[in-house]
Design a protein that fits this description.
The chain is of the alpha/beta class. It has 2 domains: about 190 residues, Type I PLP-dependent aspartate aminotransferase-like (Major domain) (Aspartate Aminotransferase, domain 2, 3-Layer(aba) Sandwich), CATH 3.40.640.10; about 120 residues, Aspartate Aminotransferase, domain 1 (Alpha-Beta Complex), CATH 3.90.1150.10. The protein is about 35% helix and about 15% strand. It has 8 helices and 14 strands. The strands form 4 sheets. The chain has a 7-stranded mixed beta sheet. Strands 12-13-14 form a 3-stranded antiparallel beta sheet. Strands 5-6 form a two-stranded antiparallel sheet. It is globular. The termini are far apart.
């Protein structure tokens, strides 16, 4: 993180930290929201339907894709999720963001922080939680503000009322205490110590480069398996878009693709259920709004050996599922 940035704990989850930033900062100029999965679409809903900004554009893309980045207008504020937790699609770099931008770049980095090399010089507001890559307690959001974002806070007063818990300024000045260890609500000290323990572990193994290497190794293990497995593929359409943390896969077997949408959803749920019933992995089904498939967490706390141990079980579960579905499919 560059010098001059402010880093604070906010009394909300990762999503709450994003909402805090949106409600406090937007409204000074038009805004483009990049919506390409569940959470980024949620930010678009906040901007358009809740804040009701008169000059808001949604630049949308279906699951597996990124929006047309050439269409982004950087004279406006830009809201995005750096890593699509529910689609397995990430921004590969920040080259598409100009240094001469006029608006703020507000980035939800919930499943990207500590796992990806974020282009801090191209961002202005970054939010994440203790929960994801370092495996900490949920419900604690982090908010990082660039000097440009602080300037916006001190020069712009939103036209809508702000709850006390969302207020980052007082008398037109940044509430500095939030970014110097004071908290709006007191978090659990056990959760704080757990977060510090995670940071100590990260430092001991080599810091950010080591954390990135661990997540990329997990992605590489799954990519090698996908390459030799005919019934599965990444949901992300381009290799450079593949998330190494929230690894989303789609089922490509002909019998599966021939099913109705409801049938696919049920079959994918059954596949994840078979794995869970054996005590191998839990909650690896795709997100409820995403296309049916699998979602495997590959964050830095996950050992690549455990990823490799999971893969034969996936093949077993798929074989069992295919045998169950084949009679009905053949009858069609």
């Amino acid at each position: 993180m560059p010098g001059g940035w402010k880093l604070g704990i906010v009394p909300a989850s990762d999503t709450g930290a994003v909402e805090m930033a949106l409600w406090s900062l937007l409204g000074a100029r038009g805004v483009d929201v990049l919506a390409f999965e569940s959470f980024s679409s949620g930010w678009a809903t906040d901007v358009v339907k809740e804040l009701r900004l008169p000059d808001a554009r949604m630049l949308e893309a279906p699951y597996g894709q990124l929006p047309n980045l050439a269409a982004v207008d950087f004279s406006r504020d830009v809201v995005l999720a750096w890593n699509g937790t529910t689609s397995g699609v990430r921004f590969p770099d920040g080259e598409w963001i100009p240094e001469s931008r006029q608006g703020l770049i507000i980035a939800d980095a919930t499943s990207a922080a500590f796992a990806m090399d974020l282009p801090w010089d191209k961002l202005d507001v970054v939010t994440w939680s203790w929960q994801k890559v370092l495996g900490g307690e949920a419900g604690h959001g982090m908010l990082a503000l660039s000097p440009r974002a602080v300037q916006r806070l001190e020069s712009h007063r939103p036209s809508w009322p702000l709850p006390k818990i969302f207020r980052l300024t007082k008398g037109g000045k940044l509430i500095e205490g939030i970014f110097k260890g004071e908290t709006i609500n007191t978090p659990s000290m056990l959760a704080v110590e757990d977060a510090l323990d995670g940071l100590r572990w990260a430092e001991a193994i080599g810091g950010l480069p080591a954390l990135i290497a661990r997540t990329e190794a997990n992605l590489s293990a799954i990519a090698s398996w996908v390459e030799r497995t005919p019934w599965v593929d990444f949901l992300a359409e381009r290799p450079e878009w593949r998330s190494p943390t929230s690894i989303c896969l789609r089922i490509t077997a002909p019998w599966f693709e021939a099913m109705t949408a409801a049938g696919q959803a049920e079959a994918a749920k059954r596949l994840a259920g078979l794995i869970e019933s054996e005590g191998v992995a839990y909650d690896i089904g795709s997100y409820r709004d995403a296309p049916p498939g699998l979602r495997i967490w590959g964050g830095a706390t996950v050992e690549t050996a455990d990823i490799l141990a999971l893969l034969p079980w996936l093949e077993w579960a798929f074989s069992a599922l295919a045998n169950e579905a084949r009679p009905a499919w053949a009858a069609e």
